[in-house]
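dumping this here so i dont lose it
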């Protein structure tokens, strides 16, 4: 299913849903960041997705990272809460979401790197490689916050 992200765009469709979602800034011992190249919008992003019924957010982060990358992680902290109503995500099935996402820091503890149906590429990238990637500003903001270990968890909303 294709998606389009809007930010502070007067032409954005009106939201008809809000879904709790999670992402993770996973960094390895060399400071590389785990990213996926999404199939639904052709952009690089942090691994993540929806919180399922009966699941807490910590379990959702661990599950989503593994499903999308093959990497098992341990959560090490909260990056931030992102609920900016100016960020709208429209799907081709008619769902239009207002952003609501919790982003966590995590470290790899196992698994084998692999892609999924949600990505065309998955990889560990150095921070100096990020500027060359097509990444939505909302994702880049989370990455930047996640790499700044001295910052307290922001609320962006």
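and the seq i came up w/
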């Amino acid at each position: 299913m294709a998606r389009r992200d809007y930010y502070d765009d007067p032409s954005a469709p009106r939201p008809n849903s809000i879904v709790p979602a999670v992402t993770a800034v996973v960094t390895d011992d060399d400071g590389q960041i785990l990213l996926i190249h999404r199939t639904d919008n052709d952009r690089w992003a942090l691994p993540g997705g929806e919180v399922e019924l009966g699941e807490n957010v910590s379990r959702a982060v661990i599950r989503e990272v593994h499903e999308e990358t093959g990497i098992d992680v341990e959560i090490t902290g909260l990056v931030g809460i992102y609920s900016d109503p100016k960020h709208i995500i429209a799907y081709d099935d008619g769902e239009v979401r207002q952003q609501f996402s919790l982003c966590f820091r995590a470290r790899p503890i196992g698994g084998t790197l692999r892609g999924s149906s949600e990505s065309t590429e998955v990889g560990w990238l150095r921070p100096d490689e990020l500027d060359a990637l097509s990444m939505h500003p909302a994702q880049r903001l989370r990455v930047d916050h996640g790499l700044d270990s001295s910052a307290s968890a922001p609320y962006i909303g």
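The radius of gyration is 15 Å.
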